[in-house]
Amino acid sequence: MFAYIIRRALYAIPILVGVNLLTFVLFFVVNSPDDVARMHLGMKRVTPEAIEKWKEEHGYSRPLLYNADASGTGKLTETIFYDKSVRLFAFDFGSSDAGRDIGEDISQRMWPSLAIALPTLLIGLLVNISFSMLLAFFRGTYLDLSGVMLCVVLMSISGLFYIIGGQYLFSKLLHLVPVSGYEPGLQAWRFILLPVVIGVFSGIGSSSRWYRTIFLEEINRDYVRTARAKGLPEVRLLFRHVLKNALVPILTGIVVVLPLLFMGSLIMESFFGIPGLGSYTIEAIQTQDFAIVRAMVFLGSVLYILGLLLTDISYTLVDPRIRLS
Question: What is the pLDDT of residue 322?
């Protein structure tokens, strides 16, 4: 098992290096530092002197890959590639184009994102798995058919409808929670309650229908028919055997949303005014602060690869056969 985990961890290194190199090419080769300076200064009537001054102030005046004027290791370290890309592997995100410390901003904004994403994930898993197992238990009945139709209806509705409708109903009409904003501390629950409820409710349709398909596939396997023939109760069969053997595809789906625990939801945080990493990324794109965008792309890649690694480890716990592969 240990060798399996080490092998999976080593696979992640070239992937992360490749993402870093691709990001560098997109931001510094396709879109040169001169282009970035023009976008910040204005496309019209920008003098070469103003461009060079802006590049000097923001650390874009160095050579891209090789500094022939430097000595020793400085030929490689005194470059844009080392300063803007290599340092990311040490989680040194540097400063934004506006002069703010990106690492400090991330450490402050990750907590509001976690406050929304973590309860949404855990409560959503509990609700979706329970609902889909209920449909699987009553498979082929009117309850199952009604549940599937409800899932299709929920899937067909845009997530923006849930957000706008929830704000109008619970905030403007019933005045139960604030429309938007955020307040740290004990009063934070008032601001995250509605986003969490909307996040859970909007995901019921697609997730429950997918889990139901997984459970029905497991129910039709030979070991389930054998256990049922031996007189094992249906409820015990579902929760003890079917659910356990269905964990592998369920864990595969969970890994997709793991980066969102830290990265935040772009749409949700923007509509509710939550100062998380999702709104942080949106603001950086709007202001064309590419230093923040690069940092968030790299951080998202690290979190996604870490999620894949954790998923591989969890596979070995729920399915011992994978340890031998």
Answer: 59
